[in-house]
Amino acid sequence: MERYGGGAISVSDYDPAWPEMFEQERARLQSVLGTPILTIEHMGSTAVPGLAAKPIIDLLVGVRQLTEVRSHCIEQLQALGYTYIPQYESWLPDELFFRKGVPGPWTHHVHVMELSNPRWEAFLSFRDYLRAHPDAASEYGDLKRSLAVAFKDDIVGYRNAKHDFVVAALRKRREDE
């Protein structure tokens, strides 16, 4: 079982400082990574106003070709204090994953992937659905709080237990379009 790095999983009330924290980190990433980066998006629960979240800023970094940026990106992000987590590639082969603040509590996660990766659209669709549906966001926040209590430091169990909610929200998002 993968353990959560900061001890027990903690879900906090929404912090209005999170968007600014994203903007500051986005600017750092853009200045260091430069032109291979096509766009950087704020994703995850900290990107949804009013939503309770683990206090970790998730950044989604879009690139044209992952193979072109792999070595450059890893070195540059390590220089900014990020740790590359290569074991995630076994279940996310088309994505590079980094954590800042290791061994926990983490402050930032960076997901680097091509814009054509289906997870790119899924991440942003889920975020946008929650932004457009405050009742769903509130329900999701309540779910996360209860799962944090139930799963304590079992981050895989916590993540898996949210899966059905995420799938249902993405289905509703498609129906809304």
UniProtKB/TrEMBL annotation:
Alphabetized InterPro entries for the sequence: GrpB/CoaE (IPR007344), NT_sf (IPR043519)
Q: Per the record, a Pfam family? A: GrpB
Q: Sorted alphabetically, which SUPFAM superfamilies does this protein's record hold?
A: Nucleotidyltransferase (SSF81301)
The molecule here is called GrpB family protein
Origin organism lineage: Bacteria, Pseudomonadati, Pseudomonadota, Alphaproteobacteria, Hyphomicrobiales
